[in-house]
Amino acid sequence: MKVSLNVQLGQHLTMTPQLQQAIRLLQLSTIELQQEIQSALDSNPLLEVDENEHFSTPSDATPDSSSNEDTRQDDYETELAAGTLDINNNTDIPDDLPVDSAWDDIYNTSSSGSASHDDDDEGFEARSTVAETLYDHLLWQVNLTPFTLTDKTIAVCLIDALDENGYLTVELDDILEAAQNILPDVDIDLDEVVAVLHRIQQFEPAGIGARNLQECLSIQLKQLPASTPHRDNALLILNEHLDLLASQDQAALLKKTKFSEHQLLAAVALIQDLNPHPGGKIGQNDSNYIIPDVIVSKQHQRWRVELNPDTAPKLRINANYASLVRRADNSADNTYLRNHLQEARWFLKSLQSRHETLLKVATCIVEHQRAFLEQGAEAMKALVLRDVAEEVGLHESTVSRVTSQKYMHTPRGIFELKYFFSSHVGTSSGGECSSTAIRAMIKKLVSQEDARKPLSDNKIADLLQEQGIEVARRTIAKYRESLNIPSSSDRKRLL
């Protein structure tokens, strides 16, 4: 093979580490940003928390001078709460830090934590308290019960065979065999397994250890006081007419039970108050705390948008260390300080850019969704990433990053910024209606329907058509399922 030298002329795009840092900070959630800031404080001696300065209060806010639209300045007061970062101007770093990028595959927005963390470091979730499982909860009750060694072994085998909803998933013969294998020198019979099962069925939560739905609900009814109104009638329906109850055949139930209509409806209401999945209550108490990144409030007939000052501490350059840097000195100590000073400045600029971009996007969203803030979800307007990107002068990928895992506190609750984006359908007047508004309308119609004659998907589509919203039946079914609303046949009630 002949070896030769060739000269090629080409172009390629290179992202600087500073731009990559800005993009990474832009897509971090509040908790991840706090971890990133703490990591920067731990690794860079030139960065410190400004303990003396405080964020300005909402009443001290002034209109955002960075807005390029006069109408927005008239309608909104914006405040960059975390924007006054102390940055030394004697630097060759550009004043304007670009944060826009068209490359979506640089970072994975679903990844959590900072890239600067070591692999062995525990994340936030790892440091959280581990929730008690159903197995642990029942085993704790077993240890409090005066069981013999044999009965305790059977109880542990039974608990181990329960599913996440608290139902027994194996036959009692298999439990007997498992206990016999653990205690081969002890003679165990099936009646002893049944006795231990009945004891476990008295544990909390009520209904645990049942082998089917009928037994689960019967256990819960039997644990109610005997004086509970309509308790015996509810037990009769469960034990003898569960199939008629499932099919909601009121006429047949009245004929079979000989109850009056009032007695039947009261007994059915008592059954409906029971929990068909008793084990699901255990281990589901994890608290997911959300810290809003943006706070929206209405003051003096104006909607005001500001960053939450509690999302991140206020940082500054350590003046004492910065004063030690000498330009002409190439010693190791001076090089160390100079490099960390430059990193600190870039970090502050990236953080400042994140705040400005987040505030700009949040303000644009509020401007478009004023009707939602004032009237509710039914007034939500159709909005897509492209609309906001064009208005604020950013790329769609940047808007996608800044709205991912960021939350807005409004008078109507806390919502992820992505909640305000939705597709649209046409109306008879030629306008548009957002899918979020249609979902809210469906939910409202279902909540107001007659439980005995629930609205079908076709009927809901007809009612929306009367309001000028043209939605197909299949679309109604899709939206209904996304709201976890059962079909009309499953929503039908005797009450």
From TrEMBL:
Domain RNA polymerase sigma factor 54 DNA-binding residues, every copy: 335-493
Any one of the GO CC terms: protein-DNA complex
Record keywords: DNA-binding, DNA-directed RNA polymerase, Nucleotidyltransferase, Sigma factor, Transcription, Transcription regulation, Transferase
Location of the region described as Disordered in the Swiss-Prot/TrEMBL record: 53-124
Residue ranges, compositional bias (Low complexity): 56-66
Any one Gene Ontology BP term: DNA-templated transcription initiation
InterPro entries: RNA_pol_sigma_54, RNA_pol_sigma_54_core-bd, RNA_pol_sigma_54_DNA-bd, RpoN_core-bd_sf
Keyword hit for DNA-binding: yes
Residues covered by the RNA polymerase sigma factor 54 core-binding domain: 124-321
GO molecular function, one term: sigma factor activity
Function: Sigma factors are initiation factors that promote the attachment of RNA polymerase to specific initiation sites and are then released.
Family: Belongs to the sigma-54 factor family.
Annotated NCBIfam families: PRK05932.1-2 (NF004595), PRK12469.1 (NF009118), rpoN_sigma (TIGR02395)
Descriptive protein name: RNA polymerase sigma-54 factor
Organism: Agitococcus lubricus
Lineage, uppermost ranks: Bacteria, Pseudomonadati, Pseudomonadota, Gammaproteobacteria, Moraxellales
